[in-house]
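Q: what does this look like with phenylalanine bound?
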Amino acid sequence: MTGVRKKGGWATEDWLQAIAAELEAASTTAAVEAVRVAWLGRRGRITEALRGLGALPVEARREAGQRLNRLREAAEAQIKARLQVLKAQEEAETLAAERLDMSWPGRRPPVGRLHPVTRVRRLVEDIFLRMGFAMVDGPEVESLWYNFEALNMPEHHPARDMQDSFFVNLPGMVLRTQTSPMQIRAMEAAGGRLPVRIIATGRVYRRDDDATHVPMFTQMEALVIDRGIGMADLKGTLLAMSRALFGPETAIRLRPSYFPFTEPSAEVDVTCAVCGGRGCRTCKDTGWLEILGAGMVHPVVLQNGGYDPEAVSGFAFGLGLERVAMIRYGFDDLRLLYQNDWRFLAQFGRGEDGM
Ligand code: PHE
């Protein structure tokens, strides 16, 4: 495109058309900028022409100057208009590319679930914390004194066979076979003060392995000591716990039993949650399921814990949490809990216990 210099001026109409054509062809804001530089930049055609005005005779200069200025204004307006169109286009393209469809369903991150035993553990802990019990904790590698002797099970006591032990490579130590050593530890920690009202949950270990026993399992121990504590307090506490765990219709049954550290002792059954007590495979048609051992704290145990059996009394019980999980969730092989089969564990949805 050449500027045709007519006599006394420039073909500004042609130039304007040329600019319009170039702008039309410019499809990006960068291309428009190139057009602007070519015409209006420091070495642009219109700029150069304006600069050349000085060489014209005075009358011609005035007329040409006006025309060139109009041309420049027209060119600037065209450029501006074209830029606006392109900017709007580019913006629309970016918006389309970055568009978020808010109606799409969100992507759920995979979330883990609490192990059924953990859920049951939190549930029973919660029940007893609300009843005013304190929670205590103790070692899984325990001394023979706490695990047996202090609990009225001296060496060669036949009852030690009920709980075949795992010994460890430290003299006088075992993996605790029960949470009952926490009875002694709690009494020691209370230092003779009353009342003692604690629970202790944790792992225990026994050389056992079948459909209803695993070598590592979880117990919750409860101990209450005060003046005038009787069997009725034990029964009331157990009934409240059982109903909170298995539903308000649940009944309990105490069967006379033997533990060296309680006297009298009982094994405690709850109404079978599977059949509601009518009798089924799970409860072997008895309508009852055994969940714990309990009793009134033996005088020797009170003494070993620093309490006077003439002045105070107490009850204790030990609850198997895997058992509770089986009953609550309705499965019949305890080993499933520890085989880490994702398909089994994933059935226990999050939150249906409220925890
Ligand atoms: N420690 C007993 C067991 O593991 C249960 C128990 C606890 C019994 C407290 C009586 C009192 O079998």
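Residues 116-345 form a domain with the BirA Bifunctional Protein; domain 2 fold (CATH 3.30.930.10). The chain has two domains: 8-97, 116-345.
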